[in-house]
Write a structure and sequence with these properties.
Layout lengths: L1 H20 L5 H26 L8 H6 L4 H32 L25 E5 L2 E5 L1
Helix pairs in contact: 1-2, 2-4
Length: 140
């Protein structure tokens, strides 16, 4: 039981760190990391519920805390909830993929990714250079 509690705390702290620090460059990578950690927290919580509802372990734990009358009903509920979570995540990923396929995107030929067009935060001025047939100039 202590391992499940520690796993839940570690996953929740990592989930909060990823949400605040945003260590991934791509939005899709960031969302995938948050979804994976959220699913881990849900799975560990389901494991704790199953552990609390073991038969002959604690008397009336399931009915007191969760409103379920037996360990079998609890395990069926946790398995159904797990399958539902996975189906929802798969549907969201599929819908995002379908929407991404529908939109045209300019991609770089070198790595097949969209170009990064953001400037550093400390940039005040920048120069765009261009070449005319009569000479070279720099324009602010």
């Amino acid at each position: 039981m202590l391992r499940l509690v520690i796993a839940i705390v570690v996953c929740a702290l990592y989930l909060a760190m990823v949400a605040v620090a945003r260590p991934y460059n791509g939005v899709a990578d960031h969302n995938l990391a948050i979804t994976a950690n959220l699913l881990l927290v849900c799975f560990f919580t389901g494991g704790m519920v199953l552990r609390l509802c073991e038969e002959r372990r604690w008397s009336d734990t399931c009915s007191t805390f969760f409103g379920l009358d037996s360990a079998y009903n609890t395990s069926v509920f946790v398995v159904a909830l797990t399958i539902a979570m996975l189906v929802v995540v798969c549907l969201v990923v599929a819908s995002k993929a379908w929407m991404a396929v529908q939109q045209p995107i300019i991609r770089l030929a070198s790595n097949d990714r969209p170009p990064v067009l953001s400037l550093p935060k400390r940039t005040r001025n920048f120069f765009m250079s261009h070449v005319w047939s009569t000479g070279q100039d720099q324009v602010p």
